[in-house]
Each structure stands twice: as C-alpha cells, then as structure tokens.
What we know:
By secondary structure, this protein is an alpha/beta fold. The chain is built from 20 helices and 13 strands. The chain has helices spanning 16-27, 41-51, 67-77, 92-101, 113-135, 165-180, 196-199, 208-212, 220-226, 243-246, 251-264, 278-286, 298-313, 336-343, 356-364, 368-371, 376-389, 397-404, 407-410, 413-421, and strands at residues 7-12, 32-38, 55-59, 82-87, 105-108, 152-157, 184-188, 228-229, 235-237, 267-271, 289-294, 321-328, 349-352. The strands form two sheets. The protein has an eight-stranded mixed beta sheet, with helices on both faces. Strands 2-1-3-4-5 form a five-stranded parallel beta sheet, with helices on both faces. Helix 2 (41-51) packs parallel to helix 3 (67-77). The relative contact order is 0.10. The structure holds adenosine-5'-triphosphate and magnesium ion (MG).
Amino acid sequence: MSEGEKIRVMIVDDIVDTRDQLEKLLFFEKDIEVIAKASNGREAVVMAKEYHPDVVLMDINMPDMDGIAATEAIMSQDPTIQVIIMSVQGETDYLRRAMLAGAREFLTKPISADDLYKSIRHVHRLAASRPKVTMQSNDTKSDTKSSGTQGQIIAVFSPKGGVGSSSIAANLAVALRQLTNKKVALLDGNVIFGDLSVILNLRSDKTIIDIASRIDDIDGDLLNDVMATHTSQVKVLLAPSDPQRGELVTADHIRAILDLMRQEFDFIVVDTPASFQDRTLAMLDMANRIVTLMTLEMHCIRNIRLFLEVADLLEYPHEKVMLVLNKASNRTGIKAEDVEKNIQRKLVHQIGDAGAEITYAINQGVPLVIGKPTHQVARDIIALAKDLAGGTKPAEAGSSASTAAPPEQKSGGLFSRLITKR
Ligand SMILES: Nc1ncnc2c1ncn2[C@@H]1O[C@H](COP(=O)(O)OP(=O)(O)OP(=O)(O)O)[C@@H](O)[C@H]1O
Ligand SMILES: [Mg+2]
C-alpha cells in the first residue's frame, strides 16, 4: 500500500450487530476502509479471494466454518493477509490454535475503539515491512553490525530470583553500547513476567509475540520493526504485558530469535528468568557467556552450587559461566573469599550494593549507568561490560552447543536433558 491509500478491512462475525458496530467504529478513521463483511468462515474464505483485504477482523466461534479454520484457509490462499482474531476472554486454547493457524493479533471482546485502531495499524505496518525485505539485499543495509562475525550472546542469569538479573542486564546493555558504540540488543527472556519495559521506561505495543507468531518469516527488518529503541540506542525486544501470551513463546522461538539477533547485532544481552524451563535452557545453551549473579545469602549460594553442577553436566565450559557477586557488601556476615573457597570458583566481578539508588533509578526509568555514571555500582557494571566487550575471547560453547546438540536433546526440560546425558 503506498502512502494515501487506505487499509482495506474485512469484518467476519456471525452476529450482525457486532459487524455493524465494528464498521461504525472504523467509519471515521481516514486511513481505514471496510471493504467487505462476512457472516461465517466459509463466506470469509470466498470473499477474501475476491476482495483481497489487507486485514481481516475474524470472530472465533461461528457456525459452519469457525474462525480458526477460516484463518488457516485464508492464510494458505494469501499469506500477505493479516488476520486479527476477536474472542471472548478465557479462550486461551483457541488463541493458541489461532496463532498456529497464522493469526497476527488478538482482541478481546468487548473491543475498545482504541485497541481496534491500534491493532489494525500495527499488523498492517508489520505486513508493510515485508516487501522491503525482498527488495533489499542483506549487504545494502546502512546500519549493519560492525563485522562479519556473529554477535556475542550474554545471558544474565541467577538460579535464585530477585538477585538483580533484570537491573544488571539493562545496565549492562546500556554500558556495552556506551563503551563500544556497536549494535547492542537486549532480549527480555522473562516472557511471562518481563519487566524491562518498566526498568527502561519503554512504551511499545510490539513484543516478542509479534516475532514468535511469524517465526518462519522473521528477518532483520521485522526484528528491527518490533524492537523498541531505548534513548541509549540499545534495541529491546520486550515481553508481552499479558503473561498468558508469554506462554506462546517456545524454546524453538527463542533459538530462532537469538540466531537472527547474532547476525544483526554485535552484542545481545538476555535477561533470563530464574528457572530451568526449556526456554531458559535455550537461552543459556546459546549464550557465549552466562553472567551468573549471586548474592551473599545462604540460599543463593546453595542454588549457585547446584547450578554449577548442572552447568558441568550440560558441558558448559568454565569460562562460559562467569560468577558475579551482586549487592556485594560486608554487612551480610558472609565473606566473598569464603564463598569462593566453598564453591571452588572465582567470583570474577563484584557489583556493590547500591541501596536505594538502583531502585530510584528504576523508578525514574533511567538506568544507573546513565543517570549516575560515577556511582561505584555504575562503575562496577561498566567494568563488567569492558571485560565482556574487550580482551577475553568468549567461549565458543554458545554456537557449538546450539548447533552440535541434536534437537531432541534440547527439549524436554532440564530433567530429561540430564537423564539422557547419563
Ligand atoms: N547492585 C544492587 N544494589 C542494590 N539493589 C539492587 C542491586 N541490583 C538489583 N537491586 C535491587 O534488587 C531488586 C531485584 O532486582 P531485579 O528485579 O533486577 O532482580 P531479578 O533477579 O531480575 O528479579 P526477578 O527474579 O523478579 O526477575 C530490585 O529492587 C533492584 O532494585
Ligand atoms: Mg527480573
């Protein structure tokens, strides 16, 4: 669609009042035009062929042919059509199936005018990025990463929640960008309860779901379109605000996304959840470095010891797992040196306890390394970033583990992975 042209919408719903209400809502939008209305799935498939709409608003429950079957048929006939599914709350299973059928977005009834306009424009913008892709060869992009080599994936992980993974991941990504001026991505791997949008004060309705839902079509342009840009120029792939939708992201999605990201960026920082779910394992497997955070608390030290055992069983090289002490202070009654002796590993970096400062920074939406770069904790994070960016060559394990291991080994969770190793 060139500029000035309208987004052509087809409405599919078996209830005549709903069709009319939606049409009325769209009537005054200058860039949107309702070109057809269908009362069931079968009619919709026929009309889609005839009218070639840009966007279809599709109800799920309809007689004769339901919205999911119709979406599948329309998508196989013309994959450039963007389908937005309309459903009532609690239809999670339907939503999953609709997404597999090729739907791009979901709207929950009753639908607000604002959500409706936003969704139509959003899916249409995403679709509009596709022709550009085929016309543009990879090496003509202006903002490509600086070298032909793959980017480095740095996972920030802790086997214990609340240790500071998200705060450190966000600050680390910004510090890497400031130090190197290279292309830096930040992935919110907490797809269920991600909070990087809050930590970095980013507002965007585009999330990892927009990538996962069209995983077979993803490329640099789509990624670029979906990722939010922080003022530091770090590009961020956000998690959905609705935890239910986060469940739609699989370990395979994560692998494909990280694979693309390392072609597009020099550094990819991943904020990982404190779990051993398949998704998290995919992130850890693919990482060149795992910044493994711990605090001087007994239960955290215990979990770290267990994680180090797991990392050995998963055959992660020692240099891949970087132990980093966060909230370091001498007020906990446990000394860092004693911990090192106990776990027989060196803590390669220590990040001080910023007290309320880091929380204040989060509440302001300005990372500490920007708001207070001279603060000792900001300096500690910058030192970690320098280490990751410079000198020491990261472990190759990330790429080899992800390509060498057969796919069956990568699924089934930690337990089955370890069992098959024995
Ligand atoms: N170096 C630090 N000094 C003081 N407070 C810190 C430091 N790092 C993180 N925090 C604080 O610790 C709390 C937890 O941080 P954060 O949310 O980043 O942890 P998380 O590991 O991502 O947690 P979750 O498991 O919930 O995802 C926040 O209040 C944050 O401000
Ligand atoms: Mg977190």
